[in-house]
């Protein structure tokens, strides 16, 4: 009988794991989901044991995927009511080195892999997180702003202000690791400071669905609804995972209507716009988009540098050379979480080995992160983009003409070629009509100087960087 149960659980896990691989991608799945070993079910509690090889891995999966795994198992196997993620009892519990290098989410969704350590304070049996569950590191003071996220940050601050906001709900749209979760927590902290006696509900959409299913099974829907609607501020993360379960969507819809009618505040976050959510009924989509949809663009190179520099203060007096900061900001472009995680990992390695932080050390120790982020921008692509921007013919990049309307765009293209590609000065010169390397050096230094003194030039370069990097 036990063998049959093990076979069935293994089959269920195969289906669940395959689905997670599609959702998370090969790298994340291979690193965190694939090592999971399925244990047995406690028939008295309906608890299924899932084992990982280290304490760090167990905690990371618990923090990031517990809700998703629990929901998947409840759907796949009627006997499973919850899951317990821990280290396999037959393995030695090791304090993994990654504990030092990954850290917590901070500074615009902080750490490289996004591990989030939250001390949950539950209300009743629902598991809903009160204000105590807000991460103390994720505040407005710790959020670094730039052109890419200033609208969302200002809207978030307005939502948390003492006076009633002009819009509700606020919908934060941003890709993974760009800071939307940070802003959700910051809103909670600021709102609580302005309204000390308020009650805050923060959870992910997956968590909402898990609690909804649990309340449904335990015939506690009246209590579920009453608790949910008693909050003054509703913060729901990763709303894209509310797909499926029409009854859960309907309950969220009614909750939104009830809270809005009472003048309470609602904030949702997702990786896509409301209209792009799959499997969400039109009425709920309408409610999600009826307030303000604030789009957070990927951080540009200047914002990435600012974020790194803000993080360096906690590592003082350790010195990180400027060329290392420039290198990280230029090459780790996918999201802020990976960017800060790369810095954390580099500094942790330097501290543990007694080495100095250098460009060579960064290239050696961050191979995986760098290779995953590196999009090969070519000089041809840079020249084409610059010519379109300044509306000049592509042939001017190699011509001998000295008219200012041609020379300045050519110099900008040389500068961008040095910033965005690994090409040497002589190699760049050859791509610009066989020019000498000294000409390229002059162009790079000139544009660097103009960016400091000329706001228009700095604006042009920023715009071109955004086009090329995105």
From TrEMBL:
Keywords: ATP-binding, Cytoplasm, DNA replication, DNA-binding, Lipid-binding, Nucleotide-binding
Compartment(s) where it occurs, according to its Swiss-Prot or TrEMBL record: Cytoplasm
A Pfam family matched in the record: Bac_DnaA
Keyword flag Nucleotide-binding: yes
Region (Domain I, interacts with DnaA modulators), start-end ranges: 1-101
GO molecular function: ATP binding; DNA replication origin binding; lipid binding
InterPro entries given in the database record: AAA+_ATPase, Chromosome_initiator_DnaA, Chromosome_initiator_DnaA-like, Chromosome_initiator_DnaA_CS, DnaA_C, DnaA_dom, DnaA_N_dom, DnaA_N_sf
GO cellular component, one term: plasma membrane
Residue span(s) of domain Chromosomal replication initiator DnaA C-terminal: 378-447
Chain positions recorded as ATP binding sites: 177, 179-181
Alphabetized SUPFAM superfamilies for the sequence: P-loop containing nucleoside triphosphate hydrolases, TrpR-like
Gene Ontology biological process terms, A to Z: DNA replication initiation; regulation of DNA replication
Primary localization class, coarse: cytoplasm
UniProt region (Domain IV, binds dsDNA), positions on chain: 351-470
Domain (AAA+ ATPase) ranges: 166-294
Quaternary structure, from the entry: Oligomerizes as a right-handed, spiral filament on DNA at oriC.
Stated role: Plays an essential role in the initiation and regulation of chromosomal replication. ATP-DnaA binds to the origin of replication (oriC) to initiate formation of the DNA replication initiation complex once per cell cycle. Binds the DnaA box (a 9 base pair repeat at the origin) and separates the double-stranded (ds)DNA. Forms a right-handed helical filament on oriC DNA; dsDNA binds to the exterior of the filament while single-stranded (ss)DNA is stabiized in the filament's interior.
Family the UniProt entry places it in: Belongs to the DnaA family.
Record remark: domains: Domain I is involved in oligomerization and binding regulators, domain II is flexibile and of varying length in different bacteria, domain III forms the AAA+ region, while domain IV binds dsDNA.
Name of the protein in its database record: Chromosomal replication initiator protein DnaA
UniProt source species: Qipengyuania pelagi
């Amino acid at each position: 009988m036990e063998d049959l149960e093990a076979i069935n659980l293994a089959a269920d896990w195969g289906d669940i794991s395959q689905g997670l691989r599609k959702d998370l991608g090969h790298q994340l799945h291979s690193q965190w989901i694939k090592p999971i070993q399925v244990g047995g079910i406690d028939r008295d509690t309906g608890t299924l044991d899932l084992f990982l090889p280290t304490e760090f891995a167990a905690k990371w999966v618990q923090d990031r995927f517990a809700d998703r795994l629990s929901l998947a198992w409840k759907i796949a196997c009627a006997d499973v009511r919850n899951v317990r993620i821990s280290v396999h009892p037959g393995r030695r519990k090791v304090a993994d080195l990654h504990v030092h290098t990954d850290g917590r989410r901070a500074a615009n969704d902080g750490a490289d892999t996004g591990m989030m350590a939250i001390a949950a304070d539950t209300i009743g049996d629902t598991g809903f997180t009160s204000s105590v569950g807000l991460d103390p590191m994720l505040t407005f003071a710790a959020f670094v702003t730039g052109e890419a996220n200033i609208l969302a940050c200002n809207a978030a601050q307005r939502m948390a202000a003492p006076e009633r906001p002009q819009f509700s709900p606020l919908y934060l749209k941003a890709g993974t690791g760009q800071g939307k979760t940070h802003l959700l927590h910051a809103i909670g902290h600021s709102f609580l400071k302005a309204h000390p006696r308020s009650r805050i509900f923060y959870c992910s959409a997956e968590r909402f669905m898990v609690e909804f299913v649990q309340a449904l099974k335990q015939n506690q829907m009246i209590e579920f609804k009453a608790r949910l609607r008693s909050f003054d501020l509703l913060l729901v993360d990763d709303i894209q995972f509310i797909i499926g379960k029409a009854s859960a969507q309907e309950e969220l819809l009614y909750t939104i209507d009830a809270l809005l009618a009472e003048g309470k505040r609602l904030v949702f976050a997702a990786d896509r716009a409301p209209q792009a959510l799959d499997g969400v009924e039109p009425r709920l989509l309408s409610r999600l988009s009826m307030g303000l949809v604030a789009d957070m663009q990927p951080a540009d190179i200047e914002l990435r540098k600012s974020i790194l520099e803000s993080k360096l203060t906690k590592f003082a007096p350790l010195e990180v050379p400027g060329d290392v900061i420039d290198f990280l900001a230029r090459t780790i472009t996918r999201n802020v979480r990976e960017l800060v995680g790369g810095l954390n990992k580099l500094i942790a390695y330097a501290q543990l080995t007694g080495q100095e932080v250098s460009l060579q050390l960064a290239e050696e120790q961050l191979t995986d992160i760098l290779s995953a982020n590196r999009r090969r921008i070519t000089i041809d692509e840079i020249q084409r983009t610059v010519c379109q921007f300044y509306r000049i013919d592509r042939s001017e990049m190699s011509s001998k003409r000295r008219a200012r309307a041609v020379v300045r765009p050519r110099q900008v293209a040389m500068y961008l070629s040095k910033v965005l590609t690994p090409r040497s000065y002589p190699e760049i010169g050859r791509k610009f009509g066989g020019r000498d390397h000294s000409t390229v050096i002059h162009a790079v230094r000139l544009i660097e100087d103009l960016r400091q003194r000329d706001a228009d030039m700095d604006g042009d370069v920023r715009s071109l960087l955004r086009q090329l990097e995105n």
